[in-house]
Amino acid sequence: MNMVSKNSGRWSIKDPVIAKDMHGVIGGISTLMVFPHKAHSEAEKETQSKTEGPVKMYQVESFSWLWSRQARKLINESVGTYLSLQAAVKEAEPDECKPLLVKKCREYRSMIQACVEDVNMSQECEDQEEIKACGQLLYKMELILSLIEILFIDIKPGGLVLGQLVMWIRVHFTQCIEKKNEAMESDHPHLHPAYWEAVYGGVSVAEFTVRWQHWQSECERRLQEGHFTTCHQLQTVCKILCGNQQTINSLIDLMDTWYHLMVSTLLFTCPTVKLFRLHNAAQDAITSIGGEQRTTPLDNVLLAAMEADTHQVIKECQQVLDNTWFTAHVTDLLCHTMGQKTGQKFLPELRESLLLDYASVLVSHSSLWQVGILYLDHCGASGIAMSQMVLQRLPLTDDSCVHKIIQMASDRNFDSIIVGVCRIMGRRALSQGRLGSAIWWGVRSRDAAFTSHLAHQILHKYVAEGRFESSQLLDHLGPAMLLSDTLTFLGKYREFHMMYQDGNFQDAATLLVSLISSKLAPEYFWPVLLLDALPLLKSEEPVISAEQTYELMYCLHNLHNHTCKRGKQGPLENEVASSAFIEKERDIRLALSNNLARAIIHEGSIEN
């Protein structure tokens, strides 16, 4: 029984048996197998009674965002970017990697943004709480990924980052723009209550220029000269431009987060800040808003990024985000960016581990397992081993699924898996009475014993009904007929029929005699072969030579002795073929005698 929990609250299993004593084992990622269990001493084991009623095992799974519709879209689109990145990195020169990684990172971000748009469009027709949670998760993913791009991947010469951080704030915190639009839509914008808040906010995220020192000095001079004393609001704007920390801190309510405050402060106090000094600025901003007790798990991720601590960034992402998609792809980007740097040698191993976790989740889903296999291809020996295990355990629900499994296994040279799947499908077809399909799967499995058994089944059916099962398949066996002796005989015997139908009696007779003399034919099929030879023996022109006639006579003699011997011991192996042979035996002997005489005369006249 499967149970899925969509939240982190309490859940219960309404089962009186399991309620008394419960035991659980890990069944996979985010999966727990729960069942009744009670430890007993040696004395209790002798007297304990069986549990009353049925005993059930429960599979408890935590709900993953990856199963949502928006995530499915992200999963299916991002795998293409991931695979192209792996291929491109292998071929790229060292100086070409950075623009390539920036491009792929932005592709991931655009996919997340497309999912956000999809969430916004579907708000009216789905569960509002789930939609809200999904939107918040996607927002966090894009916010973190864009900061990682700035601080780790798209690093500017000299380590200057403020310009990128200003744009990062502007894109993700639009409160200022919303206030500005609200004020501008009124008849008198300067009288609107949000007017000056919009001005303050606009100043705090303005674009930095190389002339900032000049106009900051000019602002300080005018402020000291009292040029703005008549307008308190303009005086506040001037103080912001001068980098007055007290004034900026007084406007904290207009800033969404501590990192909004940090960027605004740096813009007018230290616009040339380097990446390695961001941590100090971040700590000052956090202190200004009330200290670390007011920070959130998301803040911890961003703070770790500003400390350039890749390991902590990945660790905090795992705590904040309810999916393995993000950590797997972010770690992949970071590994390609800085995996060979001193102090970052742990990244390749961590990347492989997180990719394995992500792929493990995907392969457990009925429609995403193929995507999971593609990720496992890039996880070294562990990925290969897991791919084999997954392909072996997938349920063979229909032919379409089977062909997908075989194709995936074939692309990776997993021959044992192909053989195993084909063998299972062959036996399934045989149990359903579909001999043609069974022989096809048997040939693909390269199972000589099984294909030989199937060939015998087809020959027995031919003896009983006088027709071939799946004759078109037998006509196109090709080299596959060499898999077993019986299958070889079956394929050649079918060729004999085709020659006979086309009127090629000479070649048909030669092939028929070779099948008899080679001993490929099962003994129960000898009567059929001799009966097939009868019309050829009676043809107007001799098509069976004297030597071939002797071979047929020898076969007839052995078959006669065998039939008499088996008849005394009990019923013959194939009553239908034996009865027909006994009825025609005299005709066959006479035809052989006549053909031998004609063949000797014909061959003698040709020699003369």
What does this structure look like?
- This protein is mainly alpha-helical and 608 residues long.
- The chain folds into three domains: 16-62, no CATH class; 70-345, no CATH class; 503-608.
- The chain has 29 helices and four strands.
- It has helices at 16-20, 42-47, 69-91, 97-121, 128-153, 162-172, 175-184, 195-204, 212-224, 232-241, 245-250, 258-269, 278-288, 297-306, 310-320, 325-338, 347-363, 369-376, 380-393, 399-411, 415-431, 435-445, 448-465, 471-475, 485-501, 505-517, 526-537, 546-569, 575-607, and strands at residues 2-5, 22-28, 31-36, 58-62.
- It has a four-stranded mixed beta sheet with strand order 1-4-3-2.
- Strand 2 and strand 3 form a beta hairpin.
- Helix 23 (448-465) crosses helix 25 (485-501) and helix 26 (505-517) packs antiparallel against helix 27 (526-537).
- Keywords: Membrane, mRNA transport, Nuclear pore complex, Nucleus, Protein transport, Translocation, Transport.
- InterPro entries: Nucleoporin_Nup85.
- It comes from Homarus americanus.
- It holds the Pfam family Nucleopor_Nup85.
- This is Nuclear pore complex protein Nup85.
